[in-house]
Amino acid sequence: MTRIRIFLSLAAVLWATLLYAQREPFRRNPPSPEPLQQLKLPPIETAVLSNRLSVSVVYRDDIPFISLQLVVFAGMSFSPERSPGMAIFAAQMLGRGSLIHSASEFQEIVDSVGGTFSVSVNPDYVLVSFHFLEEYLDQALQMVGEMLLQSNFSEREIASARLRVTYDLSEKDKDPEFVGQRHLNRLLFDHHPYAKGSFTREAIRTWNLKDLQDFFGRTYRPNNAHMILTGSLNLRTAVRKVSTYLNLWQPQEISANLVPLAFAPEKPRLCLVDVPQTQESVIYMGTSYPLPGIPEYFDLKVLNQVLGGTLNSRLFMNLRESKAFAKFAFSETAVWAAGGAFIIRANVRPEVAAASIQEIKKEIEGMASLSSEEIEQAKAYLIGHFPLEIESFEDFSLKIADIKARGAGDESWDTYYERVSLVNAERAVAAAKKYLFRPFLIVVAGDKNRLADQLAEIDSIEVFDNKGQFLTTVNRKGAADEARGMRPEFQRRPRQK
To answer: How far is it, in rounded angstroms, from Cα 123 to Cα 39?
Structure first.
């Protein structure tokens, strides 16, 4: 009874408020937003050491930690053609021991300095993240120096890493979301260096000690890296400390890794990737564009916010809230050195997979019409959410590392508000027409036996197994016949590029 009374009381208040607002029209409109507060961020100071290692420092004395981010420009696209995934393999070996300390001893050092240690791999670079209590700066730098200068690349550790990555990949092959994302990446960057991150278990068998030593020796060099330190230390102290522990890290001339621009797909394609016995189906749709450092970067951020950036965006409200097709439906943008991509992902019920694809297409087409109200709401969210994105010390440090890794320029650090504020509906629509109104590649990952009926009316479907191996192309009649259980001979066609 208590809950009912409270509900009725709230309803009465809301009804009275509505009637009152009708008598006073000015109450229908929300008040104008308050002027933006100035975003005060500490400056980024940078110096180049004698061994050509760039060191940047951001001073913060409000927490007792130091964040060390080491960017090495040896990402997935740098892997040799004969050894796709070598960049990930080399990154896996960091922290796996040195000539002085074993992997378990390294972990004990991390724990003893109150720290955390992780390594991530991007298409363009590797990011080593190390957070520790400020009084242990010397110990942390000594550990980083050991990893870079005295790595223990033994056959035993290599075999262990191969086994670890193989097992991880075997488990992920059962996950339709991972499988769908990996396959979309292969399609978007077919015959492009960015596709090297989507390697197979067969490629893991090619990893060997000689290739690892060669890759590490060529790419893990100070003149191919940038260290960012955030915490209670100044640039002078940082330069002195880093020089002490990394002065023997010698530069070497590095051949330019000329990654070609990633051009957009020539025509739409739809692929079904079979993940047997899974109950879920995941849709990945994407298109790429060959414009690194695109001038419409912030226009695309606002556009993405309207389309699928949050729970209030068009995709989520349509597929989840309105039609109950999906668990989630979001979009995102990505920008790398050789281009960018606009990606949509949705976890949908298998029986509405085809209908969900059509709804997503409608929402993309709907970006030709954007209201000023939608744009202002998207801008307000991006501006209001930005402080939360750098609220934690780790996120704060990662944001700076991302700026340095992308070469975005220090000015992008403290002009975020202004750049978002300049976007309007006209600019956002122009960006949509330029970047979204182009062929999209569509990947549906799930159990093909559950999806056959739903995709039967689509003109042409390319079918792959969950490892990405091409199986066949099914035309509209073949798909419909298979859905009816007639099991026709599939009409095989060459795989489209």
So the answer is: 31
Residue 172 in tokens? 């992920």
Question: Distances from the Cα of 466 to the Cαs of 188, 197, 289, 469, in angstroms?
Answer: 17, 16, 27, 7
The phi and psi torsions of 361 (rounded to 5 degrees) equal -60, -40
One domain for residues 233 and 291: no
Nearest to residue 67, comparing CAs of 137, 145, 142? 137
197 within some domain? yes
Query: pTM (2 decimals)?
Result: 0.82
400 falls within a domain: yes
Cβ pair 378, 309 in contact under 8 A? yes
How large is the angle between the packed helices 137-149 and 103-112, nearest 10 degrees?
Answer: 160
User: What's the distance, CA 310 to chain centroid?
Assistant: 16
The mean of the pLDDT values for the chain is 84
What is the dihedral angle through the alpha carbons of 169, 174, 177, 183, rounded to the nearest 10 degrees? Answer: 60
Please tell me whether residues 450 and 362 are part of one structural domain.
Answer: yes
Residue 396 and residue 471 in one domain: yes
Q: What integer pLDDT is reported at residue 38 of this predicted model?
A: 62
Distance between CA atoms of residues 249 and 70, nearest Å:
14
What pLDDT does 39 receive?
67
**Is the predicted pLDDT of residue 346 greater than 50, yes or no?**
yes
For residue 34, the model assigns a pLDDT of 53
3-state secondary structure of 336: strand
Q: Is the pLDDT of residue 8 over 80?
A: no
Domain at 126, CATH number? 3.30.830.10
- Give CA–CA dist 301/315, Å, rounded: 15
Contact 183, 445 (CB under 8 A): yes
Q: Check whether residue 143 and residue 292 sit in a common domain.
A: no
* Structural domain span for residue 77: 45-246
Tell me what pLDDT residue 293 has. 59
**Closest-CA residue to 288 (of 311, 261, 313, 307):** 261
Strands laid side by side in the 460-464 sheet: 326-336, 339-348, 281-289, 441-446, 269-274, 460-464, 470-475
Whether residue 455 is contained in a domain is answered as: yes
How many distinct helices (H) and strands (E) make up the chain?
A: 19, 13
**Is the CB of residue 294 less than 8 Å from the CB of residue 323?**
no
Domain count, the chain: 2
In 10 A of CB 438, how many CB atoms? 15
Say whether both 447 and 402 belong to one domain.
yes
Identify whether residues 162 and 274 lie together within a single domain. no
